[in-house]
Amino acid sequence: MRNALSSTIIAVAIACLAAPATAQDYPSRPLRVIVPLPAGGAVDTVVRSMAHRLMGSIGENVIVDNRPGAGGSIGMETAMAASPDGYTVVAIGATQLIYPLIYKARYDLLRDFEPVSQMTAQGYVVIVHPSLPVHSVSDLVQHLKANPGKLNFASSGIGGTIHLTGELFMDATGTQMTHVPYKGGGPALTDVIRGEVQMHFSVVISAIPHIQSGRLKPLAIGGEQRFVTLPRVPTFAEAGLAGFDLRPWQGMFAPAGTPRPIVDRLSGEVGKIVSMPEVRDKLVSLGMEPLVSTPEQFAVLLQADMAKAAKVIKVANIRLN
Fold first, then answer.
1. Alpha-carbon distance values, 229 to 126, 212, 282, 290 (Å)
2. Rounded to whole angstroms, how far apart are CA atoms 165 and 245?
3. How far is residue 13's CA from residue 15's CA, in Å, rounded to a whole number?
4. In a structure prediction context, what are the per-residue pLDDT tens digits for the chain, which is 321 residues long?
5. What order do you get walking across the sheet with 62-66 strand by strand?
6. Helix %, strand %, coil % for the chain, to 5?
């Protein structure tokens, strides 16, 4: 019994010594960042703008692995099944948080992944066709109440963050609009410019050229402060609608069970890179707000966004056809 006890004590001691050594030695081989979306999109652009800097920081190669398909589920399931050792992470946008609330998905972001760090956020700018006789959010609300259901708003598809933002807007203002879903934000924006639909919640980078040319009229923008390239456009909070919208974001996650020291190491590295002036300038030029967060801060955002999305999905009775 004494020998058995001694062996157990030695084994525990070795395990305790080995755990921090593993984290301390991390990384010792290439890191794979799965992007569950096609190359060239917002998430992919953010990751690739950071990858070579992360490579220099951690001293190992960083491989960006695009795994698009099934609304991002293919890439998410690949990341979920990876060993939780810190050598496979996944970079996503807010859509992957909402997707399982509407579609059948094998993954649950809060259950199957560890938040590492938020990287960016974007504020939707609400834009209308210049022919619409409104010049502020207050004007828009009054117009909608006087014409319930007559104004159309375009989105990038049923159940996406733009659709949910429109539903949240109606709920917050007690108004009614008709939702017109498109297959992507580009076609939606095009039809607002043409006047086929009157309103759209657009990502900033897509809307700016058309705002500057006068083909679209901006009323307000999401986020805590005005966007640097649209200094005259008030925030929704300044317009009296604080906290109603879902802000698109990009963030990094690790498979559930990844050791906390490794999660913290990755979070710190991402934070350092996002804080670099050249990276910040690049992200701002793309219409994004660079953000640094701890895993805990990111988890709070995820919980809040999921609760907000689940509520509006239920209230608006959003379902697949």
1. 15, 10, 13, 15
2. 5
3. 5
4. 444 444 443 343 334 444 444 567 899 999 999 999 999 888 999 999 999 999 999 999 999 999 999 889 999 999 999 999 999 999 999 989 998 998 889 999 999 999 999 999 988 999 999 999 999 999 999 999 999 999 999 999 998 899 999 999 999 999 999 999 998 888 999 999 999 999 999 989 899 999 999 999 999 999 888 998 899 999 999 999 987 778 889 999 999 999 999 999 999 999 999 999 999 999 998 889 999 999 999 999 999 999 999 999 999 888 765
5. 62-66, 31-35, 88-93, 249-255, 113-121, 289-290
6. 45, 15, 35
What is the chain's alpha carbon radius of gyration, rounded to the nearest angstrom? 22
Task: Residue 36: name the closest of 85, 123, 109, 117 by CA.
Answer: 109
What are the residues whose beta carbons fall under 8 Å from the beta carbon of 157, sequence distance 6 or more?
Answer: 163, 181, 182, 183, 184
**Residue 163, phi then psi, degrees to nearest 5:** -60, -50
* DSSP state string for 164-184: HHHHHHHHHHT---EEEE-SS
Long-range contact pairs involving 47-52 (C-beta distance under 8 Å, separation at least 24): 47/91, 49/279, 49/282, 49/283, 50/119, 50/270, 50/273, 50/274, 50/279
Which structure tokens are listed for 118?
Answer: 């938020």
